[in-house]
Design goal:
Length: 358
Amino acid sequence: MKSRAHLFASAMRLFVRCFRLGRRRGQNKLIRRLRELWSYGRLCLKSLFYNSFTNSDTIIDSLFEPIYWLVDHITRWFGVAFVFLVIVLTSSIVLIVYICLLPLILHTYSLAWILWHIFYGHWNLLMIVFHYYKAARTSPGYPPQIKSDIPSVSICRKCITPKPARTHHCSICNRCILKMDHHCPWLNNCVGHFNHRYFFSFCLFMTMGCVYCSISSRNMFIDAYNAVETYYQTPPPPYTSKERIFHKCVIYLWVLCSSVALALGGLTLWHAMLISRGETSIERHINRKEQHRMQKKGKTFRNPFNYGRLHNWKVFLGVETRSHWLTRVLLPSGHPPYGDGLTWTHYPISTRNTMLAI
């Protein structure tokens, strides 16, 4: 009996030892697996900084890539809706001016003021419609997809093709754009070399038109607003339905035109500053970074496309003679911009600037 108990005790001790050994081996495998995952994570993290050209901007761009993809696709699909919205809002303002404001001007203003309003209003409307159509329908310009002798400054990471100077890739259009400024959803088109002037002219004349409507309808807006404030008095004022519609249309016109004038006016001033410096919106960001980099080396960065304020405007607007200020700036003109957007020469004046903005 004792021998059986001793044998059973020995077997239990052997089983417990084997169980403990198995647990230790399992714990060792778990610890080894965790160490492998930790080493792999450190390797992935270090790989982000392995390339000497990798910086914080590259890491942030990689992290925000899903957001960029979402915004690009939303902008691409809603571009047509934005264009439709511009047409509808502009048409509504023109309709209100013709139905509500113009009859009042014809009955209350002097002949000189009537002629001024008719001439300026229709000229401004013509310039808005012409430049918006040209900006939306004109191709911004694309570099050739085949091999050529055109000098390039880099290789596009998306297209895997050479990029000429001032060319950048548009993720919404999914191709490179010559002298790209930005992708405008209100045009459903990129703003580049061949339609940059149309875009700026549209912004300028639309701002002028909104300011004109806001100033011209200011007194009518005050009267209409005061009239609307009395709608809920007791007893209600004796306004007809036609007069109520007139009051609301004037308020809608003034609020919309004033808001657009402020927003679009700021954008127009920003682009006017960039044109004066010979830059695009993208080049403004690149040149500032390049300027800081050159300052750290004790050197000075100069933009090779900055010919001076007056010459920058002449090149941008395509003005070569004095008569062009009238025929190409103050009147609708479909003349092409200077150059082909592939190569850039120091025109129209010589310059010593040598640093190239890519």
